[in-house]
Amino acid sequence: MAYKSAVLGFSFLVYSFETYIQYRQHKKLSEKHVPTALSQIVTQETFDKSQSYGRDRSLFLFVSSAYSQLQTAVILGFDLLPALWSSSAHVVSRVFVYVSRIRFGDNTPALTTALTSSPFADPAAVPEIATSLAFTGAFIIANQILSAPLSYYSTFVVEKRHGFNKSTFGTWIGDQVKTLLLAAGLGGPVLAAALWIVQKSGRQFYFYLWGFLLLFQLSMMHIYPNFIQPLFNTLTPLSPTTSLHAKIRALAERASFPMDKVFVVDGSRRSAHSNAYMYGFGNNKRIVLFDTLVEKADEEEVIAVLAHEIGHWKRNHVPVLLTIQQINMFLVFYTFSHFAHHPPLFASFNFPAPTNSTSYPTLIAFLLFSFVLGPWDSVAGLLLNLLSRKNEFEADAYAKSLREGEQLRGALVKLHIENLGNLNPDKWYSTYHYSHPPLVERLEALDKTD
Ligand SMILES: [Zn+2]
Q1: Alpha helix stretches (DSSP H) within 122-265
Q2: Which residues are near ligand 1, the ion (C-beta closer than 5 Å)?
Q3: Nearest to residue 145, comparing CAs of 155, 137, 156, 134?
Q4: For 334-366, how does the pLDDT look when each residue is reduced to its tens digit (9 = 90+)?
Q5: Is residue 171 a contact partner of residue 269, using CB atoms and an 8 Å limit?
Q6: pLDDT (0 to 100) of residue 272
Q7: Domain coordinates of the chain in residue numbers?
Q8: Which residues are listed as membrane-spanning (predicted)?
Q9: Rg (alpha carbons) of the chain, rounded to whole number
Q10: Rounded Cα–Cα distance for residues 188 and 51 (Å)
Q11: CA quadruple 198, 381, 435, 22: dihedral sign
């Protein structure tokens, strides 16, 4: 089967569809009149500002999605992946020879022994895991470099023009470098371990691989907020003597929420967009407020936002989502186990057949398989957005049940205006892309008398 043509064809289909709905959205963003449902809530000036920000972001999206579609077409059309794979093996081998020369000295018997006894000396025999790590590293670095101009433009032109960017060039470069170092320090060992598990566990590898990644994901829920987030931001405990802290504690008691600590994070170092979130297991929940939220919303509104967040916890939204993701991941790995040694898949993307002593590289198999899975990813993304919007309504309803409905209403409007959120979304666009319901729909649901 012509897998590659199907993958390329489908990616152009998705690209065309997404560009079409982006165009519909762009037309809505060019409208001059405040929608009737919002005429009591926002001024013409606020509406104009939000439309203008939306149009700038929308133009940026037209360019960035064309750019990434072009990348996909070039990578697949010119068979850059097989080329990158074989160069990775060559580079690993060259590095090995170079390091051995330094270690044992040129033209010594020790060097000859090292070069004849190690598989690393021959590019065709370099162990799969080493080649996979080099391949992934090169792929990530190339991607970071190729996406840097767009990321720069988004931060320092679009966001800046509308007063959101607070990031300096130094912070931005630092973020890029830290992201790369994290990918190497954390992603490298995890990838190596995953490939090792596949090599060692035979036909049922999908089960062990899934178990390993589940454990990794669960530990990341602890590692990310405690060790990774602090690399990018500073979290300061909110003083327990403040009136805001007292109100948060009272809310936690009212909702029987096992609150441990409250932090304020310096989100304003990078962006003026505002937010709040929670993390932690069992009875040690931590609440994190963006400093921008604390500054812009009054205390009653912050409480209403937190009541909404507690609503997510009450309704078990995170465990349910995690379970759905795990079932999906298991099914994906299970299906993948039938494709891992499927010669037509590799042949279609112009990967050479393995020699007698080797098999198809797992990483490449998974990469090609995930291309083939593209249609399912699109459907799953749509379904997850549907579920997420339903969850948002439920969390709002919970806040309302705590008699925070009016305050939440005020907070939603205020934050939406401060963030210049889209006030005039196209129905197709919001159905496809939005993880949160449009403002008007949320206000209508809050207003409903039950
Ligand atoms: Zn929410």
Answers
A1: 128-153, 160-161, 169-182, 188-201, 205-223, 229-232, 243-254
A2: 392, 395
A3: 137
A4: 999 999 989 999 999 999 888 766 789 999 999
A5: yes
A6: 66
A7: 235-296
A8: 179-199, 205-224
A9: 26
A10: 43
A11: positive
Distance CA 409, CA 396 (A): 9
Cα 49 to averaged position of ligand 1 atoms, centre (Å): 25
Query: Once rounded to an integer, what is the mean pLDDT over residues 269-285?
Result: 79
Helix/strand/coil for 306: helix
Catalytic residues: 309, 396
433 is in an annotated binding site: no
Output the pLDDT for position 309.
94
| pLDDT for the residue numbered 1 | 60
Separation of CA 413 and ligand 1 centre (Å): 14
Q: Across the chain, how many H-helices and E-strands are there?
A: 20, 4
What was the pLDDT predicted at 275?
A: 83
Tokens of 322: 């995690």
Instruction: In whole angstroms, give the CA distance from residue 364 to residue 89.
Output: 13
Residue 124 has pLDDT above 80, yes or no: yes
* pLDDT score recorded for residue 449: 67
- Residue 31 known to bind ligand: no
The SS3 call for residue 265 is: strand
Q: Are 261 and 286 in contact (CB under 8 A)?
A: yes
Q: Render the burial of 315-331: b for 16+ CB within 10 Å, e for the rest.
A: bebeeeeeeeeeeebbe
**In angstroms, rounded to a whole number, what is the distance separating the alpha carbons of residues 411 and 421?**
13
Token pair belonging to 74: 């070039």
Q: For domain 235-296, give the fold.
A: Zincin-like (3.30.2010)
Question: In the structure encoding, which two tokens stand for residue 96, read together?
Answer: 């090995």
Angle ∠(196,199,205) on CA atoms, nearest 5: 100
Q: Compute, in angstroms, the gap from residue 107 CA to the centroid of ligand 1.
A: 66
- 439 CA to centre of ligand 1 in angstroms: 12
Check: CB of residue 263 under 8 Å from CB of residue 317: no
Distance in angstroms (rounded) separating the CA atoms of residues 177 and 209: 29
User: 234 C-alpha vs ligand 1 centroid, how far in Å?
Assistant: 23
Q: Which amino acid is at 327?
A: I
Distance of CA 310 to the CA centre of its chain: 23
Sign of CA dihedral 174, 176, 180, 186: positive
Please indicate if the annotation marks 394 as binding a ligand. no
Separation of first and last alpha carbons in the chain: 56
Beta bridge partners of 286: 261, 279
Give distance in angstroms: CA of 442 to centre of ligand 1.
11
Q: Where residue 202 falls among pLDDT bands split at 50, 70, 90?
A: confident
